[in-house]
Amino acid sequence: MRKVNVVIVDDSPFQIALLRDLLTENGFNVVGEASSLEETIEVVTNAKPDLVTMDMTIPGTDGFECTRAIHEIDSNIKVIIVSSMMDDEIVRKARKIHVSGYAQKPVDAEELTLLINRIMGDEELFLELEGFYSNVFKEALLNVFNKLTKTIPEIVNESNVNVEKSSKGISVVMGVIGKYSGRIIFDMSFEAAKDIAEISLKREPKNNEEILNVMSEISNMVAGNACSMINKKNKIFGLRVAPPTTFHGESISISKAELGVTYSANVKTKFGDLSISIGFGRGEGEWMSII
Predict the structure, then answer these.
(1) In the chain, what are the domains?
(2) Is pLDDT larger for residue 254 or for residue 168?
(3) How far apart are the C-alpha atoms of 73 and 21, rounded to whole Å?
(4) Taking a C-beta distance cutoff of 8 angstroms, is the pair 152, 146 a contact?
(5) Which of 26, 38, 55, 136 could anchor a disulfide with 113, C-beta 3.0 to 4.6 Å?
(6) In this structure, is the dihedral angle defined by the CA atoms of residues 256, 257, 260 and 263, taken in order, positive or negative?
(7) Which of 262, 266, 263 is nearest to 157 (CA)?
(8) pLDDT digits (tens, 9 = 90+) for 99-129
């Protein structure tokens, strides 16, 4: 990742000194500092930073007005609030004016560094994810099935084509949040789900609800394990899985999402076949707060 040019906006010389040392020691290039709206406009105009750290309490103004002024100069400049204050109202207003992140004072060096790197991650980082995410999800799936059923499925019919599909009867859908947002779908017939649930429980499922719960949790384990493996490869991704939602019935259609990359495959198990679909978008992921 290229070196990030940073401007510090804060009314405290002490805080400016702390942030300048912290940022410099962690590989960032501090190109200016400001303690008022007028200084902010002048420094940002001249220094043309990639990112600005913004205090909330600035004499005669506030961090919101300074942020709006920065984005009038260049809407591509990222702003993160670095303030001792953090509450829901401030966060809501910050998101509304396109602040990219929020860290609370006193700031931890590792947390702030990771936050900035996530915000400034570019096409190079997305290509890194694209290069290995499908293999990671396959590995996680095989590991989970091996532990639960003592069998290893066969993965066939792999594809990177993003198309709309019809469900076999049960679809477990999970969102992924982090540096990039994504979607994971596990789809199967009711018969396959029943057999997988039975071998996983080591008994016959009590009812249909238990079958759905088992498949939801198996899908969640695969997705969670895969995201953890991706984060170990590069913690900037910071991926997390949203709680699964399970749909079941006849004539369910799996829509084609607007994603930058997609991967799909069929999973042949001794208990029935599944299909998986995974994709990530190139745009901004979740709004970044303190790690």
Answers:
(1) 5-120 (3.40.50.2300), 124-280 (3.40.1550.10)
(2) 168
(3) 27
(4) yes
(5) 26
(6) negative
(7) 266
(8) 999 999 999 999 999 999 988 887 788 999 9
pTM for the predicted model, two decimal places: 0.80
Q: Which two tokens stand for residue 140?
A: 């996680």
For the cut 70, the answer to whether the pLDDT of residue 186 exceeds it is yes
The SS3 assignment for 287 reads coil
- Residue 159 phi, psi dihedral angles, 5° rounding: -155, 150
Q: Which segments of the chain are extended strands (E)? A: 5-9, 29-34, 51-54, 57-58, 61-62, 78-83, 101-104, 154-159, 165-166, 170-177, 182-188, 240-241, 245-248, 253-254, 261-269, 272-280
- Provide the angle, in degrees to the nearest 10, between the axes of the packed helices 88-96 and 63-73: 10
Q: How far is the C-alpha of 190 from the C-alpha of 211, rounded, in Å?
A: 9
CA angle 152, 158, 159 (to 5 degrees): 155
Q: Give 147's contacts (C-beta < 8 A, 6+ positions apart).
A: none
**Residue 44 and residue 89 in contact, taking contact as beta carbons nearer than 8 Å:** no
Burial class of residue 227 (count of CB atoms within 10 Å of its CB; 0-12, 13-18, 19+): buried
Q: Is 251 exposed, middle or buried (0-12, 13-18, 19+ CB in 10 A)?
A: exposed
Query: From edge to edge, which strands make up the β-sheet containing 51-54?
Result: 29-34, 5-9, 51-54, 78-83, 101-104
Q: Cα separation of 237 and 179, whole Å?
A: 5
Residue type, 31: V
Strand partners, 280: 182, 261
152 Cβ contact list (under 8 Å, min separation 6): 142, 145, 146
Q: 248-251 — which CB contacts under 8 Å span 24+ positions?
A: 248/169, 248/170, 248/171, 248/190, 248/212, 249/169, 250/169, 251/166
Burial class, 76, CB count within 10 angstroms (exposed 0-12 / middle 13-18 / buried 19+): exposed
Question: In degrees, to the nearest 5, what angle opens at C-alpha 103 toward C-alphas 93 and 46?
Answer: 80
